[in-house]
Amino acid sequence: MNNSNASALFTTVSQLHLPDDERATLQAAIESSLAQLTTPAPVPHKPLKPTPFNGKVDAISSLNFIESLEEYFVIVELPAMKWVPYAIGYLGGARSWWRGTKRTIQNTSWIDFKNIFLRQFTPADSINAARRRLHALKQGSGPVLDYITTFNDLLRIIPEMDAGQRMYLFINGLERELSKQVRLARPTDLDDAILQATVLYDVLNQNEPTNHSTSLPKTEPMEIDAIFTALNAILRNNSNRFRNNNNNNNNRPFKTITASPNNYNNNNNNQHFTSTNPPRLDSFERER
């Protein structure tokens, strides 16, 4: 819509016999619609390119580099035959290594390139070192997410480990009470144990007296009082609006809001209130 058409539309609205507030609402709606029509289409988000390799001999750094390349190549839908040439462009500090290595191999596949790269930039004793760290790893008083991140990083370095041993080491390294609760939840595998630990950590660290139970926290009476105080305020406000808009019909009844769970079966169907006598929720009786 061009500017002249938009101007004509606003002129038409201004000539309508409408209350000022309704006219303002209509004009605002038109302005919003026009803004959407004239807003340019968003530019498609471009994935971030991988960070060049730092050239360090480090198991985690080399794994992160390879995984970032694979994720990027998949997102941009790069043909498999081009993965190695593009990866070479991100070698950074490892370019000199590749210049010496490529003389001995021809037509390298991505799997071959990845294995050669990881052998070169992963310390010889990294697997044994990762095993030792994994057995000694403890959450302590830190956040469980930090513990999970470190545990998974170490696990990536170890090519093979029994699934049961993985779960045992993870649960055993958790903070004492959290470890106990995760065991009681009887997780089926490592992924399940990680999920249970994440959820139970939040439950155990809520800002209220903790009985180390996995049950959901009960609603406190003070919270209920606050809710019904707010509802009473809304009812009083609605009652005033009702009285102002219906001066000729002040005795028009309206139904009460039944607050008690025991009254859901229409026990109070015969109870009515007028606009000058709004319902109160103060008599709400809690079930004990």
UniProtKB/TrEMBL annotation:
<feature type="domain" description="Retrotransposon gag">
    <location>
        <begin position="92"/>
        <end position="175"/>
    </location>
</feature>
<protein>
    <recommendedName>
        <fullName>Retrotransposon gag domain-containing protein</fullName>
    </recommendedName>
</protein>
<feature type="compositionally biased region" description="Low complexity">
    <location>
        <begin position="239"/>
        <end position="252"/>
    </location>
</feature>
<dbReference type="Pfam" id="PF03732">
    <property type="entry name" value="Retrotrans_gag"/>
</dbReference>
<dbReference type="InterPro" id="IPR005162">
    <property type="entry name" value="Retrotrans_gag_dom"/>
</dbReference>
<feature type="region of interest" description="Disordered">
    <location>
        <begin position="239"/>
        <end position="288"/>
    </location>
</feature>
